[in-house]
Amino acid sequence: MAATTEFDAVERAIVDHLFELQPSTAVGLGLHAYDGRLPDYRREATDRWAADADRLLAQLDGYDTAGLPPDREIDRFLLRLLLESPLFDLRDARELDRNPMAYVGLFSLTPYLAREYAPAAARVDSLVKILAGVPAVLDVGRRRLAGPLPRPFVDLAVLMGEQLPAHFGEAEEFARRAGRAEELVPCRRTAEAAVAAFVGWLRETERPRADDRFALGPERFQRLLFVREGIEAPTEEIRRAGEADLARNRVRLQEIVRQSGSTPSEMFRALGDDHPAAPEVLSTTRAYVDEARAFVIQHDLASVPEPAVCRVEETPPAARALSTASMNPPGPFEEAASEGIYFVTLVDPAWTPAEQEEWLRSLNRPMLRNITVHEVYPGHYLQFLHLRARPGSLARKVYLSSSFVEGWAHYAEQLAIEAGLGRGSPSAEIAQLHDALLRNCRLLSAIGLHTAGWSVARATELFRTEAHMDQLPAEREAIRGTFDPVYFCYTLGKLKILEARARLLGPKFGGRLRAFHDAVLATGSPPIGLLETMLASP
């Protein structure tokens, strides 16, 4: 009992220390004691945080786990990565010294606006605190960012900054409805002025001297695989697995093309033709949510913990430039508001008719159905329902692996096709293969851009030829890889889940998919490199 109590204290200290640097992570998990907080990014503060993290790691590594339950050894590994991952960002990737997105990306107000977890007045208090803190954070950014900065980082930070005034306007409207606008309006004005000054500085001073030195390099990329996902396999092994999956998906698409007597371009064009009208996008999406849930239950693919309520809403303005659709799930500690929120980006009335039609074609019915499988059932929302329903340790409630979260949702797309979703028409599988090829290209581009000297142009060509994308979206995907190398997570996570299924489904789970999937979801959201070990343990 004493050993357990001591380890619990170490676990609590590490999680609290993480939230000191990442208060928004705590808010997303449903820990509202952190509402309204912004991190202290001054160099002396982050140096102090890193030094304290080093001491906690030494304490953790020296801890004798004898007398503890075996699963706490796994928790110790999770706690180690909870510290080593942000240390990598601070010291190896130098995010706060070279990436302005680290600053302008701090000001999402959606957690306070979208979910009714507390009275409106309390949430307005948090909005005021965030907006009041914007000038100081951006002042730190101007002092810490050491140019020349990577050009893609600057360009996207400018775009993100330009979206913030509309987002702050949402907060003002929310405060006005709550009768608290007089408190928020002055903070909004100073926040917007600070954002405008920061964006102007990036555009006028940093953009002209920006360069293309964005790559982590082979050694740091290998380290990234470990601190994010607990993977020690060589990067080259991950690359080969990605190429093999791309080849499988390419061959399957070619088979469907041959059977149809058309070409890939013709098939994707036909998909685009089958889209809802602008006023029907949300209602169509809601119908797909109902269909996907019924499909999971009918085919006994996984348990659906209750309560399970997911509402569909339009994407908030600040996120529309960067998101087609997204899931805002309830965190594992959220008590008052347990519904999921599935955001879908609608056409902008200010767009030309041609632009509106282009966007609707990207939200064609087969693609929207596949996105819904990914975001809701049996994808993200179902996974977070399980995360909330399981008791789990503190470490397992807090640790969120990108390759587990996105890998599970991407695996869900393939699973739905295997189980017969859309059977009788090739369009459902074509949509699934389109997204699978896209994710294959993300993995290969992440490795190429950061370890093999690839240019953005070379990565763009990969997306254009293998994922059948037009030039502009292909280039956007390639640019994303410069600042988000972890977008390898979709394919990597899917492949690791498929590997575990191939090895364990029969021997351990008697061929019962529901039992296997429930066991996967019961692990929480561990580093994907640990998944099979956790599943194989008694």
Strand order of the largest sheet: 1-3-2
Rg (C-alpha, Å):
23 Å
Structural class: mainly alpha
* Overall 3D shape: globular
| Distance separating the two termini | 22 Å
Please characterize this protein's 3D structure.
The protein has 25 helices and three strands. Helix 14 packs across helix 16. It has helices at residues 2-21, 23-28, 43-61, 71-92, 95-98, 101-104, 110-114, 120-144, 151-177, 181-206, 218-229, 235-260, 264-273, 281-298, 353-362, 365-375, 380-389, 394-398, 402-418, 427-451, 456-466, 471-483, 489-509, 513-522, 531-536; strands at residues 310-314, 325-328, 340-344. With 538 residues, the chain is mainly alpha-helical. Strands 1-3-2 form a three-stranded mixed β-sheet, covered by helices on one side. It folds into two domains: 2-206, no CATH class; 223-536, no CATH class. It starts with a helix and ends with a helix.
Question: Outline of this structure?
Answer:
This protein is mostly helical and 538 residues long. The protein has 25 helices and three strands. It has helices spanning 2-21, 23-28, 43-61, 71-92, 95-98, 101-104, 110-114, 120-144, 151-177, 181-206, 218-229, 235-260, 264-273, 281-298, 353-362, 365-375, 380-389, 394-398, 402-418, 427-451, 456-466, 471-483, 489-509, 513-522, 531-536; strands spanning 310-314, 325-328, 340-344.
Question: What is the element layout, followed by pairings?
Answer:
Elements: H1 2-21, H2 23-28, H3 43-61, H4 71-92, H5 95-98, H6 101-104, H7 110-114, H8 120-144, H9 151-177, H10 181-206, H11 218-229, H12 235-260, H13 264-273, H14 281-298, E1 310-314, E2 325-328, E3 340-344, H15 353-362, H16 365-375, H17 380-389, H18 394-398, H19 402-418, H20 427-451, H21 456-466, H22 471-483, H23 489-509, H24 513-522, H25 531-536
Parallel strand pairs: 1-3
Antiparallel strand pairs: 2-3
